[in-house]
Amino acid sequence: EQNFTVSTVPEVLSDLGAPYTIKDDSTGGDCQWIGTWNSGTKTCTLSKNITSGSTGIIIASDGITLDGNQYVISGPSSTHSTKDTEIDGPYGRALTGDYGVNGIGQNGIRIKNLTVDGFEVGIRTGNSHDIKIYSVTSQNNTLDGFYDEQSGGLQFLSASAKDNQRNGITL
Questions:
Q1: How far is CA 163 from CA 44, 103, 143, 145, in A?
Q2: Are 101 and 124 in contact (CB under 8 A)?
Q3: CA-CA distance, 45 to 36, in Å (whole number)?
Q4: pLDDT tens sequence across 111-158
Q5: Up-side HSE of residue 156: CA atoms within 13 Å toward CB?
Q6: What secondary structure, in 3-state letters, does 94-110 show?
Q7: In this structure, which of 76, 123, 158, 160 has its CB flanked by the most CB atoms within 10 Å?
Q8: Cα–Cα distance between 147 and 19 in angstroms, integer?
């Protein structure tokens, strides 16, 4: 006869760092690590600055609002290197490198009250519709402040692009 004890260790979740993925679930995906999630409005409101060596935030569901709450997402300020892969599109080139906020393919997203600083592209959207970007500053990016490819209904309200090395806005 053998005696043994089985014990369970509770799962401990921890912040793994950027990139943070915001999606429509009970916690807003990784919103729990960087802010507060309102599931009724699908809004992630930042509660701190974010620093990332790659992409900062990925918006992975339709209808998400990212409220920066006046915080800053800071990137690596890297220069173009051979490790990056370029994407050719009908409206220019984007790198598959780092983005402050990447909302490509998501419809009905809102990005507001945010500063994005020092990525290859500050805010990336595309292949979607009904996007509103307001009270956002995208600055010091090694390519574009804002990059969009083939979206309909893209609106900028009180958005600012400054000191980006290629374009403020590429559409």
A1: 28, 22, 10, 9
A2: yes
A3: 5
A4: 999 999 999 999 999 999 999 999 999 999 999 999 999 999 999 999
A5: 18
A6: EECCCEEEECCCCCCCE
A7: 123
A8: 18
